[in-house]
Specification:
By secondary structure, this protein is of the alpha+beta class. It has three helices and seven strands. A seven-stranded antiparallel β-sheet has the order 1-2-7-3-4-5-6. A hairpin with an 8-residue loop joins strand 3 and strand 4. It is elongated.
Length: 170
């Protein structure tokens, strides 16, 4: 294979990567969420969601209601948490910035106060909620969990994809 063919294959690979990135950013803009798709990593929301379910989020300008399932991030914790809203606190001004939420996993015995930052009693709807769950696909995210739990699988997959890319002939 000559250098021109290798360069063409490399450019095709870059095209696939940039297309995926553009689709992700477009979905982020459409849903108003920094992470419009997340994978459930624990069993805290069973039976509603199982470990490995793929969730679709939206963070449009609506207030959360009791019973809604939200994904939130806590300062100092890199992994988002998927839990149900148990209580809301609204100010007299109907503004999202003033809504505070108390959450709990369906499979947990107590609310999430221990998961929040030290001294924090509620989540801020505006700054800490990544999005509200709008749909899901069961077990599709197990691939992500397996690749994170077994790093050698990730490297083997990348090596095989790279090898197939370089050996493919057009």
């Amino acid at each position: 294979m000559n250098i021109r063919q290798q360069a063409g294959q490399f450019l095709n690979f870059l095209l696939v990567l940039t297309t995926a990135f553009a689709l992700w950013k477009g979905l982020s803009l459409y849903t108003n969420s920094s992470s419009p798709i997340v994978v459930v990593l624990s069993g805290s929301m069973e039976p509603a969601f199982q470990r490995g379910d793929l969730l679709f989020l939206s963070n449009r300008a609506e207030k959360a209601q009791v019973g809604d399932i939200v994904v939130y991030e806590v300062k100092g914790r890199p992994i988002p948490i998927v839990h149900r809203v148990m209580r809301t606190h609204d100010s007299l001004i109907s503004d999202l910035a003033d809504q505070k939420l108390l959450t709990k996993g369906d499979n947990n015995p107590t609310d999430d106060l221990e998961l929040y930052a030290r001294g924090q009693t509620h989540l801020s709807r505006e700054s800490e909620v990544v999005g509200m769950v709008r749909g899901f696909v069961p077990y599709v995210g197990m691939v992500t969990i397996l690749l994170n739990d077994y790093p050698w699988m990730k490297y083997a997959l990348l090596a095989s994809l790279g090898g197939m890319m370089m050996l493919q002939r057009e």
